[in-house]
Design a protein that fits this description.
By secondary structure, the chain is α+β, with helices and mostly antiparallel strands. The chain has three domains: about 80 residues; about 140 residues, no CATH class; about 100 residues, no CATH class. About 20% of the residues lie in helices and about 35% in strands. The chain contains six helices and 26 strands. Helix 1 packs antiparallel against helix 5. The protein starts with a helix and ends with a strand.
Length: about 375
């Protein structure tokens, strides 16, 4: 079965090389500045049914005391029971385009020893950015995707009950100071690191707009000047730009996952003419002791006589000459040897050590 899978993958990769595969620029690049910003805050979840933090969770008790005192309620911290309260961290992703009044989804995660957040309500929690400023406020009922219940002798749980979501639970109070439409040029950050692909992007952009707009300061960055007719109106320009198609080039690479035995060979993998012999030696040692019983009324004693069975089997593998210069011929030759994915890993390593494999071998 492994051989059939390997043949399928190799034929697919080989045949795909003859296709004209158009990949949009938007699929391999990201416009600089169009990103999300991480927000974080510390808050309290109340209304739990005895599944909150335990009495020895001091930061929960202190937070509850501070909150009540800010509301004008004086309490004795030694008499507080927090089993219906849980201290949590609240996180959210804020797009750069979010403006005051926009809503964000938030994730609520317990940081104490609460057993479940089911049925809880998050109290108003300020969410701050990396600069320490408050950008949003979060509050609302929690949606928990699991449960946890049990007694002294048994427990039952499904999924994680100490992490919850609040869809649209945060309201943006401050926008990020970034005016996207006022840019004089945009920057494309490429997900690929290949000079040929970057050069294709440059040529494609310049030819499409009939002007030398694009330049590349390094292998993975492309800067594009904004044409006069699109200044202060970047959306139509970017919509056209991101849908331009190119044919990305990739270096020859072989990726091996030793944990699962998965081997992926790129399109441009080639080998020099080489002869390969790969076989296994199996040695089986089996102990089968026998009991020697003396005859009746004799003076003999019962003894155990050792018996050892030894089997040696060596697979006979002939030399296979691989003359292939393409991945199809490489896999065809290895399949002819009956190589399994585990064998293939060893063969590829040996080919690389011999200098016959012309590709980067990456083991993950």
């Amino acid at each position: 079965m492994w051989q059939r899978i390997l043949v399928f993958v190799s034929v697919f990769l080989f045949s795909s090389s003859s296709w004209v595969l158009g990949v949009r620029i938007k699929d391999i690049a990201q416009v600089s500045g169009v990103r999300t910003n991480q927000l974080i805050g510390y808050g309290l979840v109340v209304g739990l049914s005895g599944t909150g933090d335990k009495s020895n969770t001091q930061f929960t008790i202190q937070s509850l005391v501070n909150m009540l005192e800010n509301m004008g309620v004086r309490v004795d911290r030694n008499s507080l029971k927090v089993k219906n309260v849980a201290a949590v961290m609240v996180t959210a992703q804020m797009p750069v385009s979010a403006r005051p009044g926009s809503k964000l989804d938030v994730t609520v995660s317990s940081i104490g020893d609460a057993s479940s957040l089911l049925g809880g309500v998050l109290l108003q929690t300020p969410l701050r950015g990396i600069d320490g400023k408050i950008y949003a406020l979060a509050q609302g009922s929690l949606a928990v995707g699991g449960f946890s219940a049990g007694g002294e002798a048994a427990t039952a749980a499904k999924n994680i009950a100490t992490v919850a979501r609040i869809p649209g639970g945060a309201i943006v109070e401050r926008g990020i100071p970034f005016d996207f439409s006022k840019q004089e040029e945009i920057t494309l950050n490429l997900a690929t690191f290949d000079f040929s692909t970057t050069n294709q992007i440059l040529n494609r952009i310049n030819s499409s707009f009939n002007a030398p707009l694009a330049s590349a300061p390094n292998i993975s960055t492309v800067k594009v000047k904004i044409p006069e007719r699109f200044k202060n109106n970047l959306i139509p320009f970017l919509a056209t730009l991101e849908n331009l198609e190119i044919n990305p080039d990739t270096p020859a690479k072989v990726v091996v996952d030793e944990k699962t035995g998965t081997v992926v060979l790129g399109e441009h993998v080639t080998i020099s003419p080489v002869a390969i012999s790969h076989g296994n030696l199996h040695i089986v040692v089996q102990e089968l002791p026998q009991v020697s019983q003396p005859e009746s009324f004799s003076q003999g004693e019962t003894t155990v006589v050792p018996r050892t069975q030894l089997g040696v089997k060596e697979e006979k593998k002939n030399l296979v000459l691989l003359k292939g210069a393409t991945i199809q011929e490489l896999v065809k030759g290895l399949n002819a040897m009956g190589a399994t994915p585990r064998d293939l890993i060893s063969i590829l390593r040996t080919l690389k050590a011999a200098g016959a494999l012309h590709a980067k071998l990456e083991i993950i």
